[in-house]
């Protein structure tokens, strides 16, 4: 007569698996950076070109909805450009304001309103309609001065020529883009990047 042994259900210790999952979760939470919403979101035109913009020595001019925003890479370059703009327009910025400006995204306000923008919280700066754009008309061409002073700042800090990128909305009217190009050509800048969205190549 055969004796039948009862089989007991096996148990798996999940403690180690939980520890690994928790460690991975902690790692991703601590190393991830929150994406700051753009103050002027634009829908860039599609292109099949895949060249990448440089990570430094770059100024980006965003054009959309009739507004122009200006952004600059590098904290020290931003501080120097702000100092030069302050001297040009008679606006004095404190060390604290300069440090905050160095961490900001693109700006779209006249230089006289920049202190108020710097004083705001990051989330408040990106509210729609808050920033009217950098003035670019012939009587008050602050965009020209931002580009000019940023070029000086970049050479002073990095000893390199500043590269320019234009990020235009696909629905933006041509005269607005042309105005920006004219401002660049006034400073003998005839080479610049156009930011586009990637689309699949036609077969």
Indicate the radius of gyration in whole angstroms. 25 Å
Structural class: alpha/beta
Helix content: 25-40%
Number of helices: 7
> What order do the strands of the largest sheet run in, or round the barrel if closed?
3-2-4-5
How is the biggest beta sheet arranged?
4 strands, mixed
Beta percentage is 5-15%
Q: Average pLDDT, to the nearest integer?
A: 84
Can you describe this structure?
The protein is elongated. Strand 4, helix 7 and strand 5 form a beta-alpha-beta unit. The protein has 203 residues and is α/β, with parallel strands linked by helices.
Topology:
Elements: H1 15-31, E1 46-47, E2 58-64, E3 67-72, H2 75-89, H3 95-103, H4 114-119, H5 122-125, H6 142-158, E4 163-168, H7 174-186, E5 193-194, E6 197-198
Parallel strand pairs: 1-6, 2-4, 4-5
Antiparallel strand pairs: 2-3
Helix pairs in contact: 2-3, 2-6
Keywords for this structure?
203 residues, alpha/beta, 4-stranded mixed sheet, 40% helix
Short characterization:
With 203 residues, the protein is an alpha/beta fold. It has helices spanning 15-31, 75-89, 95-103, 114-119, 122-125, 142-158, 174-186, and strands spanning 46-47, 58-64, 67-72, 163-168, 193-194, 197-198.
